[in-house]
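Running this now, will post back.
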Amino acid sequence: MSHNCFPKLLNALKSARNLIGLATLTTTAAAATPKITAMESDLQTLKTRLCIIGSGPAAHTAAIYAARAELKPILFEGWMANDIAPGGQLTTTSEVENFPGFPDGLGGGDLMERCRAQSLRFGTQIFTETVFKVDLSASPFKIFTDSKTVLADSVVVATGAVAKRLNFPGSDTFWNRGISACAVCDGAAPLFRNKPLAVIGGGDSAMEEANFLTKYGSKVYIIHRRNEFRASKIMQSRALSNPKIEVLWNSSVAEAYGDRTLGGLKVKNVGSGEVSDLSVSGLFFAIGHEPATKFLDGQLELDSDGYVITKPGTTLTSVKGVFAAGDVQDKKYRQAVTAAGTGCMAALDAEHYLQEIGSQEGKSD
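Update: finished.
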């Protein structure tokens, strides 16, 4: 762990301690709704022109641009929100080799520490607290954590999406040591080159990732628990016609094993129950993502998969003054660099919005 992480960890632990005390107070006081409302009125109230919710490349890029525009943004990076540390999904990636400007690559956590430091440098106020509720019904918008209420003239939602993972013996042990949820992010790593690899899934993402991995792996197995794919016909055709891809139908992973890194899988036939060994050096989950939008409570327009809908070519959402950036609105690319790009767009869109409402207020005065 880098020395820079210790102050952050200490602050997070202090925050956790305070939250435990708050939870105890809530429990001993009473469970009635009026009491909860009373506690909300006692929260520390802050005001800002822009509040950013998130901690990944999209959130910090938005913060950097907004802070340099002297909007004095407040950013909530969360504390183990969606079971991921502040910094988002990149904190679960051991090596990032495709982010521009770092030809030798760097750790995902290190990249996010640098982004965070840059946000702070320009004056972003960062709180290691999780937003559990928002009120977007009127301006100023209200953002709630366990200890604060923020009144914001504009909001950037950059809470990301979490890759769905399967749990079986060894799935945690070999996470980032042979098991991943992003072939595009990790597939070119030396660990996987010229080695047999496996993908779990049956949709378009699984077909796409399997084809991508054939550039690096000696062979790619698609493990699917049914006897047919749900992927589109064209994506199925590409995968099934690739000589380096073999499909294990009606199969599921029962266990992952190895020494220091993944060495193989125990694969179970769901029909017969027979278990066999499959020697692979990499396993990639391609079973979808879950966008972190539950806290919005339906106040923004979402698509059928729960992603925030934005106006094409912009970060504008269904609520004027609220913007969305990164994986929370991007179900196609899901890369750090594209997230950073939309974070820039969100900050610029927010700045233009604030200028617009400022000029309108001036005319009304």
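The CA atoms of residues 199 and 210 lie 6 Å apart. More later if anyone needs it.
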